[in-house]
Amino acid sequence: MNFYPRDLNLARLCNEALEQPLTAGERDIMIAAAARKVEELFDILRIDHRNDHNTQETPQRVAKMYVEEILEGRYSAPPKITEFDNAQAYDQLIVTGPIELRSMCAHHMMPIYGAAYIGILPSADGKIIGLSKYDRIVEYFAARLQIQEELVKQIGQYIMDMTSPRGLAVRISAVHMCKTQRGVRASHRSRMVNTYYWGEMASDAALKSEFLQECTALDRAGSA
């Protein structure tokens, strides 16, 4: 079914962005089409969305939420990155976090929430970017159906491609509601943690240790 005018060959991998960002008009068409499908789902599940005041507007709300918020990273351009010359030739590890992370599990479409930490080992003659841009990069790649193991690599590879640091580390610690709200119904204290390294960070045990220690310190500072 063609629910928006531009031919995008429809499907992309769930955590990939479309080749071209959607226009406002294309988003409106997608939302309207998705809302009709949510209405069909409600009919199948025997949920009255026609007469129940609690659910009359729910299909439209759900469709709008998915297109404009939860999956927004698939339909938008990547965040603009302002680069600066590394004027002081700074070449030591920089760690930023915790960065708020909200995503959606690709397997059960349940929320994932937690924090990301990014460690950058800049090149003395390379480029650096503003700290807030790391938050926007995390937000961009999280706003789609995701698998945490792939999300951590997508975030890092984008930063590597944009800034070419000597080394990079990305760590995510998150709660998966597909585990806490269904299935084994684990405690909300149960988290998944994974870290991925690039460049010199991948081969230098001392740098890895420094990064993990800084993540712990930032976590403590954030909860103080």
Tell me about this structure.
It comes from Microvirga ossetica. The chain starts with 23 loop residues before the first helix and ends with a helix. It is α+β, with helices and mostly antiparallel strands. A five-stranded mixed β-sheet has the order 5-2-3-6-7. Strands 1-4 form a two-stranded antiparallel ribbon. It has helices spanning 24-44, 58-70, 72-75, 131-142, 148-163, 177-180, 200-203, 205-223; strands at residues 83-85, 94-105, 111-121, 127-129, 145-146, 167-176, 192-199. A hairpin with a 5-residue loop joins strand 2 and strand 3. It folds into two domains: 1-77, Orthogonal Bundle (GTP Cyclohydrolase I, Chain A, domain 1); 83-223, GTP Cyclohydrolase I, domain 2. Helix 4 (131-142) crosses helix 5 (148-163). Helix content is 42%, strand content 22%.
Features:
single chain, 224 residues, alpha+beta, GTP Cyclohydrolase I, Chain A, domain 1, GTP Cyclohydrolase I, domain 2, 2 domains, five-stranded mixed sheet, two-stranded antiparallel sheet, 8 helices, 7 strands, 22% strand
- Return the average pLDDT rounded to an integer: 91
Helix fraction? 40-55%
Oligomer: single chain
CATH architecture verdict of the largest domain: 2-Layer Sandwich
The largest sheet is: 5 strands, mixed
Distance between the termini: 52 Å
The amount of beta strand, in percent, is: 15-25%
Can you tell me the CATH topology of the largest domain? Answer: GTP Cyclohydrolase I, domain 2
Cα-atom Rg, whole angstroms?
20 Å
The H-and-E topology, N to C, reads as: HHHEEEEHEHEHEHH
- What is the total domain count? 2
Q: What is the overall shape? A: globular
Q: Spell out the CATH superfamily of the largest domain.
A: GTP cyclohydrolase I, C-terminal domain/NADPH-dependent 7-cyano-7-deazaguanine reductase, N-terminal domain
Low-confidence stretches: none
Sequence of strands across the biggest β-sheet? 5-2-3-6-7
Number of strands: 7
Name of the level-1 CATH class of the largest domain: Alpha Beta
Structural class: alpha+beta
Number of helices: 8
Catalytic activity: GTP + H2O = 7,8-dihydroneopterin 3'-triphosphate + formate + H(+)
GO molecular function: GTP binding; GTP cyclohydrolase I activity; zinc ion binding
Keywords: GTP-binding, Hydrolase, Nucleotide-binding, One-carbon metabolism, Plasmid
Subunit structure: Toroid-shaped homodecamer, composed of two pentamers of five dimers.
